[in-house]
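From the methods appendix. Each design record in this collection lists the tokenized structure first, followed by the designed amino acid sequence. Records were kept in a plain field format so they could be parsed without special tools. The example shown here is representative of the layout used throughout.

RECORD:
FOLD TOKENS (282 positions):
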């Protein structure tokens, strides 16, 4: 199910923005062809390609009990879950994600971190027109279902009953922080990657020394956090969005990569978590 969602994100990116390159078109075709074939954890989607490209959901949003098991046999249950994940073939990034990563690496350096490090950092190779350095950071679990209001970093509804097969999956946005640094100052923009678009939610400017130590992109709560973003003039918000996309280089490809890689990284960390818990209780 995870790889299916990654393919959906890729397909939607290519279809929505009408990209003209042959390689991009091939990605969209491959995604459509595979969307109805992929099946992980015993869940199969019967949705049409138009429906599956419309919505996707990250692996951290919902997980379901696979089968009945003896509640006292924790190691065996963990082993069963681990085997099901490994059999699903979700530990390697799908070709579509790999190709997209290769494409954006011409402009960005991507730091994926070690196992257990759920934070991904990206650095733009070229400075902006005025010499500013651009970087961004996101956490693979920092997601927001589209119908969630006031979402948090970690959702509490981890285990839920399986939805009806005909029910559409809710799309998921991934939070990320964009930083533009110049002359000892940092402009920090709180953003979402949603439907292969970068959406700005807040903006603050602080001195480099005012950043929270050890937390990249975090501003001391005692400082001014910037205005209520939605109350800014509409044309000002649009200009900021254009700056993020054109000057900072957070294109639709980059926004799609953030959502897709967060989904994949969470799956990798989930498998590692299963192994760690099993080693502690066996």
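DESIGN:
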């Amino acid at each position: 199910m995870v790889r299916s969602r990654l393919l959906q994100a890729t397909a939607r990116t290519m279809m929505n923005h009408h990209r003209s390159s042959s390689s991009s078109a091939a990605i969209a075709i491959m995604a459509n062809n595979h969307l109805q074939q992929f099946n992980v954890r015993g869940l199969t989607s019967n949705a049409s390609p138009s429906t599956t490209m419309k919505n996707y959901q990250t692996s951290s949003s919902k997980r379901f009990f696979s089968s009945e098991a003896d509640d006292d046999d924790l190691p065996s249950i963990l082993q069963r879950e681990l085997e099901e994940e490994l059999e699903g073939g979700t530990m390697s990034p799908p070709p579509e994600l790999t190709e997209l990563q290769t494409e954006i690496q011409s402009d960005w350096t991507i730091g994926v971190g070690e196992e257990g490090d759920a934070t991904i950092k990206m650095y733009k190779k070229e400075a902006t027109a005025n010499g500013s350095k651009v970087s961004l950071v996101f956490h693979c679990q920092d997601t927001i279902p589209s119908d969630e209001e006031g979402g948090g970093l970690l959702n509490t509804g981890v285990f839920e009953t399986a939805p009806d097969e005909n029910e559409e999956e809710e799309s998921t946005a991934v939070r990320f922080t964009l930083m533009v640094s110049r002359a000892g100052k940092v402009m920090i923009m709180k953003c979402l990657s949603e439907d292969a678009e970068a959406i700005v939610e807040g903006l603050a400017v602080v001195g480099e020394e005012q950043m929270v130590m050890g937390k990249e992109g975090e501003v001391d709560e005692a400082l001014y956090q910037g205005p209520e973003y939605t109350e800014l003039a509409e044309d000002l918000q649009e200009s900021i969005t254009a700056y993020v996309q054109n000057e900072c280089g957070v294109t639709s490809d980059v926004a799609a990569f953030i959502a897709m890689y967060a989904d994949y990284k969470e799956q990798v960390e989930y498998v590692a978590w299963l192994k760690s818990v099993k080693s502690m209780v066996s």
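APPENDIX NOTE: The radius of gyration is 20 Å.
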